[in-house]
Amino acid sequence: MPALELAEPDTLEEAFALLADDEGARPMGGGTALMLMMKAQLFRPAKLVSLRQISSLSGFSLSEDRTHIRIGAMTTFSALEQSPLIARHLPVVTQTMKTLANVRVRNVASVGGNLAHGDPHLDLPPVWTALGASVRIVGAAGERVIAAEDLFLGYYETALVQGELISEILVPVRPDWHFFYAKVTTRAEHDWPALGLCVGLRAEGDRIADTSLVLSAAVDRPTRLTGAEDVLRGALLSDATLAAAADAALAEVHIESDGRGSAAYKQHLLRVHLARAVRHIMQGSAGA
Ligand SMILES: Cc1cc2nc3c(=O)[nH]c(=O)nc-3n(C[C@H](O)[C@H](O)[C@H](O)COP(=O)(O)OP(=O)(O)OC[C@H]3O[C@@H](n4cnc5c(N)ncnc54)[C@H](O)[C@@H]3O)c2cc1C
User: Fold this and answer.
1) Positive or negative CA dihedral for 122, 124, 129, 130?
2) What angle do CA 41, 42, 45 make, to 5 degrees?
3) Which of 41, 205, 215, 238 is least surrounded by Cβ atoms within 10 Å, i.e. has the fewest?
4) Among positive and negative, which fits the CA dihedral 113, 82, 100, 245?
């Protein structure tokens, strides 16, 4: 078996040099997804470049103007889960952690590794997308900031190219919006979802003033349901509106059958959970 080299650079520049033009080198966050893929012999990197020692990739904070939260790529899920700052400004992230994997995984899995993995079943990518987050991508040639929804190109496919790293995610703080993530599993609640749905709403009385809907797991990447958003935007909450929004959602996505359920079953789940999540938020925000 060929030897596997582990590098632990202290700076981004060292990491870029280790990753540059080397197809056999892979960055490593918490290593939880990488180890599973290596065990399954899906790939065999020659070199793992751990990002753990790079201090600029750690930590998270509210911006001075309080408009967004910056979360470093090496922030662990446990750090987010236990943070009063996140619970206060991004409660949907705290909610999502309750059924995400287990504490051993959450203690090491990183925000950047989770985004870069590109698995459509992951719980956080639809949440970041609905929240309107942006991702900072850095490399030897410079940096770019893209919308989270533009990072995901397909099944395990992202917009990252060899040598690029995610350095942070920037999440807007929008106090007048409310979010809910529905993780719909067919076995245990911590299992991989058959369907993930993140719903964001800004309500004005009984009217849905604005909305952001993102479907995952049943599709090949986190997908904005823009047709359904158009139906809900400006509408009064009613059974007819919710049914029309579900019709629009089902018309704009292609849902595949897999081991977690048939396409027809998942279409039914989408209809039920879209209505439930919108009602849940509207009822909660009425008293907020
Ligand atoms: C037992 C188990 C149960 C799980 N259950 C769930 C669940 O219920 N819900 C859920 O959402 N997830 C679940 N997961 C998946 C888990 O969320 C991912 O494995 C984890 O988020 C990946 O993060 P990581 O830091 O460990 O990534 P790594 O394994 O380190 O890396 C993953 C990929 O990202 C690349 N990478 C890492 N960091 C960066 C970076 N900063 N920039 C660019 N590329 C990078 C790596 O090269 C690799 O390709 C589970 C995992 C396990 C092992």
Assistant:
1) positive
2) 80
3) 41
4) negative
Read off the pLDDT of residues 96-117 as tens digits, 9 standing for 90 and up: 999 999 999 999 999 999 999 9
Q: Rounded to the nearest whole angstrom, what is the distance from the C-alpha of residue 119 to the centroid of ligand 1?
A: 9
Please check the confidence at residue 61 and state whether its pLDDT lies above 90: yes
- Do residue 246 and residue 203 come from a single domain? yes
Tokens 């970041």: give the residue.
128
32 lines ligand 1 (CB under 6 A): yes
Strands 134-139 and 165-172: antiparallel
DSSP 99-151: TSS-HHHHHH-BHHHHHHH--TT-SHHHHHHHHT-EEEEEETTEEEEEEHHHH
Distance CA(224)–CA(214), nearest Å, equals 4
Length of the chain: 288
Q: Are both 62 and 164 inside the same structural domain?
A: yes
For the Cβ of 74 lying below 6 angstroms from any atom of ligand 1, the answer is: no
Q: Give the residue from 148, 172, 196 where a domain finishes.
A: 172
For a pocket test of ligand 1, which of 75, 105, 127, 185 has the largest count of ligand atoms closer than 8 A to its C-beta?
105
Task: Name the residue of 78, 110, 167 to mutate for ligand 1: max ligand atoms within 8 A of Cβ.
Answer: 110
Structural domain for 232, as ranges: 178-286
According to DSSP, the residues that pair with 82 across neighbouring strands are: none
pLDDT exceeds 90 at position 71:
yes
- Residues 164 and 253 occupy one common structural domain: no
Domain boundary among 146, 172, 198: 172
Cα–Cα distance measured from residue 225 to residue 197, given in angstroms and rounded to the nearest whole number:
10
DSSP 8-class letter at 61: E
Q: What is the pLDDT of residue 189?
A: 74
In which band, very low, low, confident or very high, does the pLDDT at 287 lie, cut at 50, 70 and 90?
A: very low
Whether pLDDT at 42 is above 90: no
The answer to whether 29 touches 109, Cβ cutoff 8 Å, is yes
